[in-house]
Amino acid sequence: MALALAACDSGGGATSSGGGGGVVVVTPSPTPVAAFTDADAARLAKQASFGATPALVSQIQAAGVAGWLDQQFAASSSSYADIAATEVRRDFCVSGDTICTRAHFSRTPVAMRFYADAVTGADQLRQRVAFALGQMIVASEVEVNSAAGIAAFNQILLANAFGNFRDILAQVTLSGYMGDYLDMADSNRTAPSENYARELMQLFSMGPDQLNMDGTPALDSTGARIPNYGPDDIRGVARALTGWTYARLGGAATTDNNARDYSRAMIQVPARYDTTAKTFLGVTVPAGASQDASVAAVVDAAFNNASTAPNVARFLITHLVTPNPTPAYVGRVASVFANNGSGTRGDLRAVVRAILTDSEARAAPGAASGKVKEPILLMTSLARAIGFTTDGYVFTTRDINLGQPVMRAPSVFNFYPPDYPLPGSATLKSPASKLLNTSNVLRWHNFVYDWTVSGDASRSEYALDSGLPLSSLTQPNWGSWESLGADTDAMVSRIDLLLFARTLTQAQKDALKAAATPLTNADAAIQARRRAQMMLYVAASSPLFLVDR
Fold first, then answer.
1. Cβ–Cβ contacts within 10 Å for residue 511, how many?
2. DSSP type of residue 369
3. Model confidence over 23-39: pLDDT tens digits?
4. How far is the C-alpha of 110 from the C-alpha of 466, rounded, in Å?
């Protein structure tokens, strides 16, 4: 039995001895499973939250990837529903009442809620997915300035972030807010608006060209791309979507444009509906079909188009993980969109799980991995790393200057195209790099300086009051950094974890310490804060922080 004992003592597999014959069978040990480290947890936090915090990293590491995702799928603390319930007539505010106008006719209340929940909310993944969906299915304050409408539209994305993509398309199609933004509201059979019809296909679902399941373009016999739709399809969809107008407040007449209720689904105006037969995307709606049947046919055609699965899969991968996924990665996620394993198409919970558990998301990052932070994530990631409590107002005063005011995209094409090329590369994509012009880079750098080196709790912008109900201002929690005292190694370790997922080299860690140690103060707490602020400034203004790998 000496061999058996030796095998056991050396950590080998199971052993057995045959009867009295001395025959020993040694079963090989299973391949060790790599430990799920705090660096792994921090990397997932970069992809699936608005920024890593010590508590979030600990939570992810304790639960593991699958366990934490389950927790997040069950979380739903954020909501815009209460703001959506505040719609008023367009002539509600008296002239010159800026607080009333801000409360009802701007993005401010909704954007404040977005930032407050992004910085401190528990349902981080739901919010990140809704944020991504809102950059694919765009409606903006630039065109329609109803706070309740903005809230109701974004509530659709938030509530359905882990639901079914078809439900999103159906609800967005009849949204009063979207109805104004892309002109489907009051579209008449005599002159149908084609705006929503076009963008539903081009941007919100299948995309302009046919795709293989792996996201690569389908080509015809000449090697040319194959369009998903043509002018006749656009006209057919537009005709199917005629005959809708805004719900009105207080039972007002449909001619009262001051009573438009952007927070509710549109209502039918049968006299404006095209009752004739319509053909689009290989589908025919028979003459005499109801308005609801026509809308359902449009939504189903877009949802079931073969290109929608890879287009949505690639878009969400781009916004959560990388704009440069392999075709195989896109294909794996698209197959889950097409069938979640139980015969259901469009299950976003299954899609998000597939994106974040895929080997390309969880493997050690390579040279082409990751993505450039967009300004909104720059702000929230820094705020969460420092430790903020906020009502969100200070973020709404900053995001315009940084080039990405949430819920105020310059057009239906968002702030940047998803296939924007990485400057200097012939193959790589980097959507957010479109915002990295000289002026914006300087503004981003100054922002980081303001909220770190100049970011004491007494900073005047933190005390800005929106004048709206439930305003609570903003406060950074430097106390957690002051508690580290003179232990600059602990500060560097926290920065390395939260901002870089443990990827700093020793030379980079030493450089952070070298920037901080000359700062001294007789007050130990002030000294610790000043050192933390300087290191956070150096770290968060670096290119390493601007790229999430």
1. 17
2. -
3. 444 444 454 557 899 99
4. 12
Measured between its terminal Cα atoms, the distance across the chain in Å is: 51
Cα–Cα separations (whole angstroms), residue 341 to 146, 215, 303, 346: 40, 20, 18, 11
Ranges of residues in the chain with a pLDDT under 50 are 1-29, 31
State the Cα angle at 449 between 421 and 406, rounded to 5°. Answer: 50
| Cα 272 to Cα 150: distance, rounded to the nearest angstrom | 26
Task: Please state the length of the chain.
Answer: 549
Q: What is the pLDDT of residue 35?
A: 85
**How far lies 483's CA from each of 174, 221, 318, 477, in Å?**
53, 67, 38, 11
* Helices vs. strands in the chain: H and E counts, helices first: 25, 12
Q: Enter the tokens of residue 446.
A: 């100054």
Q: Give the pLDDT confidence score for residue 32 in this predicted structure.
A: 53
pLDDT number for residue 17 = 42
Q: Give the C-alpha distances (Å, rounded to integers) separating 221 from 31, 105, 117.
A: 48, 53, 51
The first and second tokens of residue 19, run together, are: 């009867």
414 with 318: CB under 8 angstroms? no
> Where are any strands of DSSP class E within 429-494?
474-476
